[in-house]
Amino acid sequence: GDSVTQMEGPVTLSEEAFLTINCTYTATGYPSLFWYVQYPGEGLQLLLKATKADDKGSNKGFEATYRKETTSFHLEKGSVQVSDSAVYFCALATPTGDYKLSFGAGTTVTVRA
Amino acid sequence: DTAVSQTPKYLVTQMGNDKSIKCEQNLGHDTMYWYKQDSKKFLKIMFSYNNKELIINETVPNRFSPKSPDKAHLNLHINSLELGDSAVYFCASSLAVSSYEQYFGPGTRLTVT
After folding, report:
1. Looking at the complex, does the CB of residue B96 fall below 8 Å from at least one CB of chain A?
2. What is the mean pLDDT of residues B56-76?
3. Which one of B38, B102, B103, B109 makes the best mutation probe of the A interface by having the most chain A beta carbons within 10 Å?
4. Statement: residue A49 has pLDDT above 90
5. Which of residues 30-89 of A touch B (CB under 8 A)?
6. Average model confidence (pLDDT) for chain A?
7. What residues of chain B, 24 to 43, have a C-beta less than 8 Å from chain A?
8. Which one of A12, A19, B71, B92 is CB 3.0 to 4.6 Å from B102, fit for a cystine?
9. Is residue B18's pLDDT more than 90?
10. Residue-level pLDDT at B106
11. Are the CB atoms for A102 and A93 separated by under 8 Å?
12. How far is B10 from B86, CA to CA, in rounded Å?
């Protein structure tokens, strides 16, 4: 079935460091791809999305590009802040599928001042 | 205004008890979901309803029963609680069943002792 695999955490880095969280997917057809973020004690929020190959999603300084050739959707931010400490989830949806989002296992990111 | 709200936020109960978690959304969305997040942050879909009709019914024990009195509400009732039911339960909603941009509630942390 359709699935995503994201890099295991936890990831700890200093403020202003560069962040990359790897995400690769397995899907039949042409999925839509998402990054959700969960701040401590809260529910998930949609961070960004891309619906077709070569699309770039961006929000709050985060970016991810839908790469069909490498089946990847890596999340990047050039300069992280303490407020970016959260759990990040890569997710996939197949438009003609079963109406489910398939979430990755989540990557915990901690940014130190 | 809270878009997706859940009550209670915390629930501590003993094994064998029956409990309910309530969810309401004021976004005018047609589709609502229940997810279970375990201690390792892994997120699993349990149920979804579209306009009061059950759409997704994952492999969960039949002690779990969702109820949707109207499209703005989706409640989760759990009978005969077990230790393994301890988790954070998230309600979410989306505009339509084919919309994968989901809005999550703050979660209900259930602890079974």
Report:
1. no
2. 92
3. B102
4. yes
5. 32, 34, 38, 41-46, 49, 87, 89
6. 93
7. 40-43
8. B92
9. yes
10. 94
11. yes
12. 11
